Amino acid sequence: MTSRSPLQTLSALALAALLGACSGAPMQAQAPMTAAAQQAAPDLASHDWNLTAAFDVQGKPDGRWLLARRAPMQLHFEDQRITVRNLCNMIGANFGTQGNDIQLTQPMSTKRACADQALMQLEDRVGMLLPSMQRYQLHAGGTPRLELWFADGTRWELAGQPTPQTQYGGPAERIFLEVAPQQQACSQPLMPNAQCLRVREIRYADNGVKQFVGEWQPFYGKVQGYTHEKGVRNVLRINRYAIKNPPADASRYAYVLDMVVETERVR
Asked: Taken in order 229, 47, 238, 87, is the CA torsion positive or negative?
């Protein structure tokens, strides 16, 4: 992987530890918000923010920040930390606000290499620009909007979607699942020839050392934000939310991808 100054890189587990991934304690979530409250008073932490448009110094659209056939960048704010998702790696930095001013610390990143060079180049640009974030503005509405201004005069516009904490109205349990390179046949209602992920649970000590590796078993649910690629083994850091009053034939949990901790292409 090429050097990415000034973006610092960490091992995946080091960053996981930095973000409190290995504590095993449930994440603290905000109280659920009503739809009216979300429209009246959106805040940075109650929504995830998907990039919809970017503009250069002259205010002209800048398409370099959105890649065709790729999910847009998503910003997640939690516990005075900002995380950029949907790149090759996860980029994170601490932040503070005063009024509408916002200031970030030096970003840090995991160090996976991706075959998609356009995605890697986008990640480098994000790592360079992110520390110069200066100001933000929130706009209420059916879909809340976030505007971000940077020191060079460029601007991003982002659309909000409720975070899982807001959506499910409760704290998440953080777990790790290893996903095998190949899926396996599994029987599901109305889908007798279904293919399921093959997973096993992993538990880590506070220092990042594996403490427990479970047995392989089919995974009948869906991990939101994760798309499996045949022949690739992954270890996923997942936020698991209890679903209130699920249907009789549905899972009691919602699984939301938080981070890909390890990845390996298996021949």
From this structure: positive
CB 231 within 8 A of CB 265: yes
Output the six-digit token pair for 16.
């996981």
Residues 6+ apart with CB under 8 A from 22: 13, 16, 204, 205, 206, 207, 208
Least confident of 110-114, 131-135, 148-152, 197-201: 110-114
pLDDT at 14: 53
Name the nearest CA neighbour of 119 among 147, 139, 89, 94.
89
The Cα–Cα gap between 184 and 199 comes to 10
Band (191; pLDDT cuts 50, 70, 90): low
Taking CB atoms within 8 Å and a gap of at least 24, the contacts of 184-192 are 184/218, 186/218, 186/220, 188/220, 189/249
Domain ranges of the chain: 8-167, 172-265
Q: Which single residue is written with the structure tokens 């850091």?
A: 237
Average pLDDT over residues 229-237: 92
Return all residues near 161 (Cβ < 8 A) that are at least 6 apart: 47, 48, 50, 143
Mean pLDDT of the chain: 84
Integer angstrom CA distances of residue 184 from 180, 236, 253: 9, 18, 21
The domain 8-167 is placed in CATH, from the list 3.10.20.310, 3.40.50.11540, 2.40.128.270, 2.60.40.10, at 2.40.128.270
- Per the CB < 8 A criterion, the answer to whether 95 and 101 are in contact is no
